[in-house]
Amino acid sequence: MSDVNITYVFVADWPAYLRIVVAGRVQRDYFFFSKLITDRLTANGVRELPDFSIFTPESLDEVLDLLARGGMTLLAGGTDLIPMMKRGKASPVYVVDLSGVSSLRYIRREKGYFLIGGRATVKDLVECGLFDERYGAIKLLGRYFGVEPTRVMATVGGNLASGGERDLPQILEVLGARVKLVRKEGSRVAGPLGLQLAGDEIISEIVFPELGVRTYTWFSKFEKRAANGIGVVTAAVYLKLGEDGSVDDVRLTLNRVRGRTPGRLYKTEKALRDGRLDDDTLSHVMEVLDDEISPASDFRASASFRKHISKVLVVRSLMECARRIMA
């Protein structure tokens, strides 16, 4: 385990990058923008990264020892932390780089459950080959979760820990996932939505059961910039149909249920259970959903627009799941 001081640098005019070197060996390169673009961003509040000290542990025990000291900031993929630092919204003094902790990067299936290490990347998740067509919500991350470099770097644990309107908490919630958080003194289990980590905790594993027969999941995103941004509206759906076509079980999430808070649509789920996905049911579901959600407005979309798109995405996702189950 080593610590070094890192400084943000330019090479000629571009690209701007961070290089982490430990014991003469390059650990990681972060590439950002050309100097021209960076200068323009600086004029709009984007800054060069401040100096900080970085630790490069190689085991989970080493990570927990560091976190127990206090004042540490975890760096997984860096897709959230680095932009926050550039905008002056985060100024960590001590950073723990998790790239060397290989024991946290895995995806496997055991005894009817999927186990995902906190350092597994979104690209790992999409391309691991363990998820069949029923896991449409996971497969659609390849379309909706940022661009390819983002999927390569972003980790499952990092996306969960970031909070807010992220894609993976919604998807993992409808999959019935539980998240294991560990600290030096022990561990606990929590749900993926609204996850709050203590300063000495790290996400070590995510677990969810295999889907059964006549089930399907779907994920939809409405975003003005397509994949490369936080969605104006995102919806995740799990649906299970009985042999007669009635709804045996359903789980629904939206990125804004109340204000800016993502959550489950429990009232809408109740309205769907045991019924059929016919026109009358869907019309009633739209009414229930309209009463259940009150998304906040912002510069990207008004509350009324978000509510309208939320209803459209939920119904379309339900119908897509049903169509694929019946096929």
Question: How does this model look, in words?
Answer:
With 327 residues, the protein is of the alpha+beta class. The protein folds into three domains: 3-100, 2-Layer Sandwich (Uridine Diphospho-n-acetylenolpyruvylglucosamine Reductase, domain 2), CATH 3.30.43.10; 103-209, Uridine Diphospho-n-acetylenolpyruvylglucosamine Reductase, domain 3; 215-326, CO dehydrogenase flavoprotein, C-terminal domain (Enolase-like, domain 1). Helix content is 32%, strand content 29%. A five-stranded antiparallel beta sheet has the order 8-9-12-10-11. Strands 13, 14, 15, 16 and 17 form a five-stranded mixed beta sheet that branches. A four-stranded mixed beta sheet has the order 1-5-7-6, with helices on one face. Helix 10 runs antiparallel to helix 11 (279-292) and helix 11 packs antiparallel against helix 12 (303-326). The N and C termini lie far apart (54 Å). The model is unreliable at 5-15 (pLDDT under 50).
